[in-house]
Amino acid sequence: xPARAAGIDASxxxxxxxxxxxxxxxxxxxxxxxxxxxGRNAAAALPKAEQLVLLLPEHALSWHPIxxxxxxxxxxxxxxVGLLEEQLLEDPETLQLALPPGAAAGEACWVAATxxxxxxxxxxxxxxxxxxxxxxxxxxxxxxxxxxxxxxxxVEEGGLRxxxxxxxxxxxxxxxxxxxxxxxxAHLMQTAIGRASCRERV
Length: 202
Prior knowledge:
Blueprint: E1 5-9, E2 11-12, E3 16-17, E4 24-29, E5 35-41, E6 51-56, E7 62-67, H1 76-84, E8 95-98, E9 108-115, H2 116-128, E10 135-138, E11 150-156, E12 159-166, E13 169-174, H3 178-183, H4 186-201
Parallel strand pairs: 1-6, 6-10
Antiparallel strand pairs: 1-4, 2-3, 4-5, 7-9, 8-9, 11-12, 12-13
């Protein structure tokens, strides 16, 4: 069937914020969520799909646990800034804040924060190529308390990394450090390191 959605990574060049002439990593899926392909192209050469989803990489996001305040919708941003001002490392005016779908007042949830400028730049580059973004999503997000932690290995900047998601948040960890080793059984670590070494020799 036709391609249902194209996921576009909102970063380029080794995971750094996308420069003006950078390419986009992309993944193409059908209506059942099966992968149809992947690649890396300039905005104008991205594959056609019914939906275009912009994916924010882990390094572009910070996650903050809160209890969502009871406030009118038009005041929720001001309320969030008041709750997060001591946690945020940047000026809140330079950040885009987002709540998870279905977040309800009085309940615990995670707030995602990302710098506005690189996000707007990526959207403008896509729009200049007549590619309109339908949704913006995180590549990884914290899990609910009843979900077991998940770990995924990937290669970035020549090194093997562990993407770890749990009810405590999201982390990307180098395998050389103790934090990654503390989260996984030794045999899994050795298997991952072995496979990465084989890839480097190929």
